Amino acid sequence: MTSSFNVHNAAGYEQLMGRWSRRLAPLFINFAGLADGEKVLDVGCGTGSLTFALAEAADLAEIAAIDYSPVFVEAAARRNTDPRISIRQADACALPYDDGTFDRALALLVLHFVPAAAQTVAEIRRVVRPGGVAAAAVWDHLGGMPGMRMMVDTVAALSEGGRRLRERYCFQPMMQPGEMKQTFVEQGFLDVAETELMIRMDYQSFDDFWAPIAAAEGPLGQYVATLDETERMRIGAAVRDAYQAGRPDGPRSFANVAWACRGAVP
Predict the structure, then answer these.
(1) What is the pLDDT of residue 219?
(2) Helix extents (H) in 128-217
(3) What start-end ranges are recorded for coiled-coil regions in this protein (predicted)?
(4) How confident is the model at residue 5 (pLDDT cuts 50, 70, 90)?
(5) Are 105 and 128 in contact (CB under 8 A)?
(6) What is the model's pLDDT at position 218?
(7) What confidence tens digit (pLDDT) does each residue in 209-249 have?
């Protein structure tokens, strides 16, 4: 089942989100737990932010990583030098592993881009052994990403298309308080816990913020790519004004919150 995350090249993704998912990965691992000797699955590995953080966090026996995007799979495989890590293209809604294969399965910044997120949670439970643990984290687009809301609120003020973008962006799957926790409970997990994880996104300039969006990366970039040149320039100028907020262009820092959930397989 396709992802709703639009990606053209790995470098663009890294500038848009990969650098921030690397900051989030250690916090997520600490919440999810990890133990030496485990076999771990990374569901939706992207360019490997979590995959390679897992390899550094514990003496794991095996790390399997999957992603739907061949662009991501190629980029992560190119980076990999660890024989414990295997990376393949696969669908998170139909994981290509036998029941109970893994001690732990983690999904970092994935479920909100899967059209059938509950099905993915069910698949994650299936491939984790009894007594094993699964965990997932998603950005809080509605209330926890002021830097991105700055852009979507700006475009929403400019057009009906922008308002529709904001509605889609702010209410993707698993983003509301308690939503992931409820899904984990409904899929039969035990000892389900939910928390918030926070990092900061630090940009050097407006161009550092805007370049991957202007290059059509991610859902915001995909929207910008549908506009004609005049409208793109109008939106770019308006978002620049919001970023600068009356001060000279330069570094800006935004707090960013992710919801995280974990549960045990009975």
Answers:
(1) 86
(2) 146-156, 160-170, 179-186, 206-214
(3) none
(4) low
(5) yes
(6) 86
(7) 999 999 888 889 999 999 999 999 999 999 999 999 999 99
**CB under 8 Å to 105, separation ≥6 — which residues?**
40, 41, 42, 43, 124, 127, 128, 132, 133, 134, 135
Q: Which two tokens stand for residue 199?
A: 């990092």
State the residue for tokens 């935004």. Answer: 254
Report how far residue 194's alpha carbon sits from residue 31's, in angstroms, rounded to the nearest whole number: 10
Strand 190-203's sheet: what is its strand order? Answer: 85-89, 62-67, 39-43, 102-108, 128-139, 252-264, 190-203
- Pair 90, 96: CB distance under 8 Å: yes
Q: Say whether pLDDT at 1 is over 70.
A: no
- For residues 34-55, average pLDDT: 97
Q: What does the pLDDT average to over 95-109?
A: 98
Q: Are 113 and 4 in contact (CB under 8 A)?
A: yes
| Verdict on whether the full-model pTM lies above 0.85 | yes
Domain segments of the chain as ranges: 10-145+173-203+254-264
Q: Which two tokens stand for residue 182?
A: 């409820």
> Which numeric CATH code is attached to 10-145+173-203+254-264?
3.40.50.150
Cα 192 to Cα 157, 182, 237: the distances in Å are 39, 9, 45
Q: Taking 80 as the threshold, does the pLDDT of residue 193 lie above it?
A: yes
Structural Rg of the chain based on CA atoms? 18
Provide the b/e sequence for 137-149 (b: ≥16 CB within 10 Å): bbbbbeebbebbb
CA 96 to the chain's CA centroid: 21
